[in-house]
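Suppose you are handed a protein chain with no further information: no name, no annotation, nothing but its sequence. What can you learn? This example shows the usual starting point.
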Amino acid sequence: MRGESGVIVGVCISHERASVDQLETAAADSERAAVETLLSHPAVAEAFALQTCNRTEGYVVVSDREDGLDALDLFTRSVPDDAVVEMGHEESLRHLLRVAAGLESIVLGEDQILGQLRSAYETARGVGGVGPMLEDGVMKAIHVGERARTETEINEGVVSLASAAVRLLDQECSLDGETALVVGAGEMGQLAAKALADEVDRVLVANRTVPHAEHVAESVDVDASAVALDAVDAAVSESRVVVSATGSGDQVFGVSSFEDAGEVSVVDIAQPRDVPAEAGRLPSVTVYDLDTLESVTAETRSQRRRAAEAVERIVDEEFEHLLAQYKRKRADEVISTMYESAEQVKASEVNRALSAAEFDDEQAEIVESMADAIVSQILAAPTRSLRDAAEDDDWSTIHTALQLFDPDFGSLDQTEPPAFVEGMAVEDIPDGMREEIPNAMLDQLSDD
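A reasonable first move is to predict its three-dimensional structure. Written in structure tokens, the prediction is:
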């Protein structure tokens, strides 16, 4: 299956519709595992997965929408229908642009999502999931994310879940003179440690790999030290607040970790959860999770509303550019057919001319160069016109070009759709093109 002839189908399970438990249920073991599983589906040509603490998304390139949703059942099978957003080709592309720009995040305009998107892209590309269709879409999304953060103030103020977690803790209890425990030495853990260092007198960093925890401890401008993950219960007893942000597949804490800890406030921003929900029932323990952070970020959302409007305009502009880019590629398929047809005629006539007279090698080369130049000059204007036609959704012109330059095109009316609609779902074919395609072809596309 050729990726450039397919359409993108996507699903999204995010904080907007799903609970923390549902997000945990929807997530695959890893982005790599998700992409590999999607690619194993016979209908999938390309695949991409994005999994963060507040969203799980999957995208596939397929010929048929239902095949795509069948493959994406990997994410949706165990969560309620009302927690899932299903997206067609253009919806998927626009959504990816919005995600990269930070418009879909809990913290509007957060920076971390852009790095997470880049990482997911590299993961998918590394296992063969990214082809020409997703390459254009994801790279455009990353470009939009970069523009949003350099051309607007969308990321001013609270820019991460980690900083939102620290703001929440600061609102709920006094941090001055206290000790804070950060569990996890990844990007979110580092951000949490740096944010806490401005509020507390001491930071403990716990991580399964102690050298990584030491690196985080050394990076903050406050008294800090690293501890092993198996010593985390003892670290809790020394701490007034805890921010947990590991990537562990298992819960890091048990309820017993907090029973003798005294008064402690915990923000669990890990996905899946690091802290059991039952811990929050202890009288001296307060547990906040991703759902709670929604209230903390409301103020930031209000402050960034004006910037978000500017980002929306960037998304609209770049979305149109992306659609035009895809249309140009569709036109290039027709242009390729046109050049192949002309090349066949040129080669035949050059061979006939060379056979009719005796030419030395230099003369023969001149004849071939002249023929190449004639073909290029004759086709230059039609090439520009076809690309313009594609951008204007003028599929009648492209249809006519196929009839003129593809000697077999006429015979396709009774057998199969033309190459420039190969792999497209009927609902994704622009109206202008659909009018030019016989009903028998549309029926075949529907059946396929």
